[in-house]
Amino acid sequence: MDRRETIKSLVLGSLASSFIISGCISKTDNPIPEISAKKIEDKKDGYGRTPQEEARDIELKSKTFFSEHEMSTITLLAAIIIPNNDNSGSIIDAEVPEFIAKDIPAHQIPLRGGLRWLDHESNRRFDKLFEDSSKGQQLEIIDDIAYTDDVKPGFQQGTVFFSRLRNLVTTGYFTSEVGVEYLGYLGNTPNVWDGVPQDELDKHHMKYDEKTLNQCIKPEERNDIMNWDNY
Question: How far apart are the first and last CA of the chain?
Fold first, then answer.
């Protein structure tokens, strides 16, 4: 099983409760005032945001924190965590780097510190920035900070950074349109119920009466509003 499939299986196993990290921050020192939804740029149909959320999006989009080099390194790391394949969209298609850069500003300073640690470590080992190192050299460093249960002395900062980034990458990817499609998650999709299977009814010595069958179990009428007046 490759890394992408491993992450997919972990997400599917914990979809209901645990893979979205700190997706909502409830307290803020500077509440954002309400603003007209008409000012949202590139607004899509069915946007579904409250005025406060729309205002927050505008503010986040208007600011740039990370440098081009930092964004390039974030993108590189995201692709290491969730590699590209031919069966689904990439972290670029899912706009994961943009999500990491702007969705929750509280992550920005810790991530910048981690990126500087990463470049320092790469310079120490290979006399190159992490981005300019070979794939093998990059993975050599990642292997030393990827596992929180086995951290070598001096690598604690790198491990905390990579754990934060990995959580953000998986959250960003698997909450995006391409990520949800990759999971095959259908959500609240309507289906057709045609009653308890006959073998289960037989097992419990039960059966539907004709009136119930005629009035209640009609898949072809599933979109009709039931009239119970004569039931």
Answer: 55
DSSP string, 187-205: -S-------S-HHHHHHTT
pLDDT at 16 over 60: no
Please count the CA atoms within 13 angstroms of the CA of 214 that sit on its side-chain side: 5
Q: In angstroms, how far apart are the furthest CA atoms of the chain?
A: 84
What angle in degrees, to the nearest 10, is found between the helix axes of 135-145 and 156-174?
Answer: 100
Q: Which two tokens stand for residue 222?
A: 């599933």
Compute the distance between CA of residue 167 and CA of residue 147 in angstroms, rounded to an integer: 13
202 and 169 within one domain:
no
- Global pTM reads 0.64
pLDDT in tens, 120-170: 999 999 999 999 999 999 999 999 999 888 888 889 999 999 999 999 999
Q: Is 81 exposed, middle or buried (0-12, 13-18, 19+ CB in 10 A)?
A: buried
The answer to whether 116 and 130 are in contact (CB under 8 A) is no
Tell me: do 74 and 158 sit in the same domain: yes
- Do 16 and 121 belong to one domain? yes
Q: Which bin fits 20, alpha (ψ -120 to 50), beta or left (φ > 0)?
A: beta
Considering just the CA atoms, what is the radius of gyration of the chain in Å? Answer: 25
Q: How far is CA 200 from the centre of its chain?
A: 39
Cα–Cα distance, 224 to 33 (Å, whole number): 44
- Specify whether 166 is located in the same domain as 199: no
For residues 88 and 181, give the distance between their C-alpha atoms in angstroms, rounded to a whole number. 8
